[in-house]
Amino acid sequence: MLTYTAAYFFDGDGIHAELLDYPGVLSCGVDLDDARENLGAALVDMLESDLSDGRPVPTPKPASDSPEADLVEPLHVVMKGGPEVVTDIAAAGQ
Hints:
By secondary structure, this protein is α+β, with helices and mostly antiparallel strands. Helices cover about 20% and strands about 40% of the residues. Strands 3-2-1-4-5 form a five-stranded antiparallel β-sheet, with helices on one face.
């Protein structure tokens, strides 16, 4: 299992979400549940792309933090081998 660090930034128009320790994985949502779901989908897309192109997956950094974030929480990923990447993603709040 890999555990990345998700950060959420609330503003008047919705929530910006990003992984602090996986560059390029970011998304947004109209509320926290939507942002979590969209961030999980963005992570799956990035994992599939990196693995299929032979790029290494970034090592999670559990100490990652963002003082500017309104919420920081772990995002857990379980990957199973096979012809396609299968993930089971869960944020701490779900």
